[in-house]
Amino acid sequence: MLGNLNGSTWKLYEYDTLELYCNVSGKPEPMLKWYHDNIDVETEKNVDFKHLRSNYTMTKVKLNRNDRGNYSCVASNKYGESTLQFIQLEVLGRFFNLFICHGGR
Fold first, then answer.
1. Rounded mean pLDDT, 23-48
2. Measured distance CA(36)–CA(30) in Å, rounded
3. In the sheet that 39-40 helps form, which strands lie side by side, from edge to edge?
4. Mean pLDDT of 51-72
5. Which strands, in side-by-side order, build the sheet including 55-60?
6. DSSP 7
7. Residue ranges of the domains in the chain?
8. pTM check: above 0.90
9. What number of other Cβ atoms are within 10 A of residue 97's Cβ?
């Protein structure tokens, strides 16, 4: 899922990919950090970051239930700090069909 839906709740499934983006500009150019439940996501696994001009993207692949929670991007420069994006993510379990075949005589 890709988006910039501030304040919304998203429901994704385990093994899905989360892609969030923020558009940031300012002088001096702001530094942007992504947070999951107020913890910097740079320490998490399966996360990739891209930055092209004023567009910042965070991609998190192979979601699992531990990835649920609040996500935000925070831009800062010497003049201050601003939270630009905030979503709540719910990660739902995948249901698999299991077929059991019994052999008989």
1. 90
2. 20
3. 8-13, 80-92, 69-77, 31-36, 39-40
4. 93
5. 2-3, 18-23, 55-60, 47-52
6. T
7. 2-92
8. no
9. 4
Q: What is the 3-state secondary structure (H, E, C) of the chain?
A: CEECCCCEEEEEECCCCEEEEEECCCCCCCEEEEEECCEEHHHCCCEEEEEECCEEEEEECCCCHHHCEEEEEEEEECCEEEEEEEEEEEEECCCCCCCCCCCCC
Indicate if the pLDDT at residue 105 is higher than 80: no
Helix (H, G, I), strand (E, B) or coil at 28: coil
Fold of 2-92: Immunoglobulin-like (2.60.40)
Sequence-distant (≥ 6) Cβ neighbours of residue 52 within 8 angstroms: none
State the pLDDT at residue 83. 85
Token readout for 8 is: 């919304």
Between CA 80 and CA 67 the distance in angstroms is 29
Asked if 24 contacts 72 with a C-beta cutoff of 8 angstroms, the reply is no
Q: Quick one: tokens of 95?
A: 């249901």
Query: In angstroms, rounded to a whole number, what is the distance separating the alpha carbons of residues 76 and 83?
Result: 9
- As beta bridge partners, residue 48 has 59
